[in-house]
Amino acid sequence: MRTLIVKGKKFTAATIRTGESAQERYAAAELAKYLSKVGIPAGDGLTFDVRCDAAVPRDGYVIRPEEDGTLTIRGGGGRGVIYGAYGFLTHYAGMRFFMPGLEKLGEGDITVGEEYAFTPVIECRQSDWQCGNSDVDWCVKNGINARPIPEEMGGYFWCADGLGGHTMERLAGAKQYEEQPCLSDPEVLARVIKNVRAALEKDPKAGMVSVSQNDNGNYCKCPKCAAVDAEEESHAGTMLRFVNAVADDIAKDYPNVVVDTFAYQYTRKAPKITKASPNVSVRICSIECSFAHPLADDTCALNAEFVRDITDWSKVCRRIRVWDYVTDFCRYIPPYPNFHVLRENMRFFADHGAYGMYPEGNYTSPKSGEFGELRCYLLAQLMMDPYMSATDYYALMDEFLAAYYGAGWRYLRAFIDWTCGEAAGCERMSCWEEPFSIIPAAAYLAMEDTIDGWWDKAEELAGDRAEFVRRSRLQWRYIKLMLHPDPEEGKRFMETLEKEKVQMTEWWGNDWTRIHDDLKESFPQKEDA
Prior knowledge:
Layout lengths: L3 E3 L2 E3 L2 E5 L3 H16 L8 E7 L8 E5 L5 E5 L1 H15 L4 E4 L2 E3 L5 E3 L3 E3 L5 E2 L4 H4 L2 H6 L26 H5 L13 H17 L5 E3 L12 H10 L3 H15 L7 E6 L16 E6 L15 H16 L3 E6 L13 H13 L2 E7 L11 H13 L5 H16 L3 H15 L11 H4 L2 H20 L5 H7 L1 H10 L3 H14 L29
Parallel strand pairs: 1-9, 3-4, 4-6, 11-16, 12-13, 13-14, 14-15, 15-16
Antiparallel strand pairs: 1-2, 5-6, 5-10, 7-8
C-alpha cells in the first residue's frame, strides 16, 4: 500500500472530479484504476480535478497542487488530459508501461511538490512495431497518436481514406512500382484534386491527406517537367509545385487538413525557388543514410548530404515530418546495433523542426527475434521527449531490460553495448545491410565464448522471463549459424521462427528460397527450391 504526499500532507485515499467529455471520463477512470492497483482506493482523501483546458498546448498537460488542497490535472484537448493522467502516474508514481501486459507500478510514497508541466515536442508520433503498436492501450499510454485510436481514448491523427503515402497510384492512376505521373499535365492535376476531395468528403474528420510519389524512381522526363526541375535544381520542383496546387485548391473548404508529400530518394533535395504552401507538410526520408553514427556526424558524407537537405527543407516548409529507418529490412533478426544513435537522431530531427515522426521498424513480424520490443518502447519515449538526457535515456533502457528479461538483464546490456561499440566504427550501416558488413565475422569469433556466456547467464537468471531471453537470443543463434553452418541447428532455428511468430525479412517472411546466401549451408535442402 502506498501513500500520497502533497506538500507534506499525507493521504491514503483519493476522490477524482472530472468533466463530461468522454476523454475526461476516460482519463479519470484510468487514474482511479492505477491508484487502486497500488493501494489508494476511492474515498475521502486527496481530491484530483481532471479536465481539458484550452489554455494548455495540444497534447500537453499541467499537474498542479492548488492552495485549497486539490491536485489539478489540466490537459490540452482530449489526448492532453489523458496524457496528464498517465503523466502523473509515470512522473510521480514511477509507473512504466513497457509492453502490452508488462507494466511496472513503482514503489514507495507518491510525493508531489511543485507544479509539473509537459508538452510533447513532436506533434505527430507514429509507430509500426507490432509488439506494441498492435495494442491500442499501449499506444495511448506511450504517446503514439498516429494510428487508429477511439475518440474516447483521445483520437488520433489520420490520413483521409487511408491515403497515407505513395499515393499516385490511387490518385493519378500510375502503377505503384513502375510509374510516376506527369506533374505538368493539367489533366493529372484535375484528376488528383478530384480524388483528394472525394477522399476528404468520405472522411471529413481526417486531418491529413498524402499526395506523394509512388515507390519507384521513374519520374517524368517530359520537356515541361524537366524544365521545372532544372530551374529548381531538384526533381522536388515539379512535385512541390504540384502538391502546392492541390493544397491551395482545398485550403478554403478544408482549412484544418494538411497535404503531405515526400522528400524521398529523387525528390529528397529541396527546390531552389518554390516554398511549401502553409497547409503542406514535407516528409523527408533518411533511407540513404548511415545509422552507425549520429546523423549530425559531419565526418560521414552520406549523412552530411542528409543534413544539408533537411536544413534546406526546413527553410522552405514549416511542417517537416520525418520517415526514419530504425531496423535492418534485409534481415530483421541479426543484431542491428543502433541504440547509441537513436536519442541523438531524434534530437537532431526535433532541432530541425520535425513536427511529425515515423521511425519505420519491423512492421511485418508479430514478434522480434532481436531487441525490437526495447527499440519500440524507447522510440515512443523519444518521440515524446527527444531532449531527454543520455542518463535518462539509458535509465529507461535499463528499466525495460530488467522488467522484460529478468534478473540477468545486465548480460544483455553488455551484449548491446559491445555490438553498438563495434558498429560505431563501421563506415556505413544502412537499413539494408548484410550482418557481417556491420560487425565482421572475425570480431564475433574473437568474442564468441564471452557472448555465449552472456546469453547463458541471462537465460539462467531470467526466471519467468526466460522465453523472452530465448526469443531475443535468436539474433545470436543466427550469427552462430553464419559462423558455423549446421543443417540440424538450421532446422531447429526455422522451427523456432514458425513457433514464435518471428519473421525474417520485410517482403519474404521466412521463405528461405528468397533470402540471400547467409544460411545456405545451414539449409542445403533449400538450394534447389
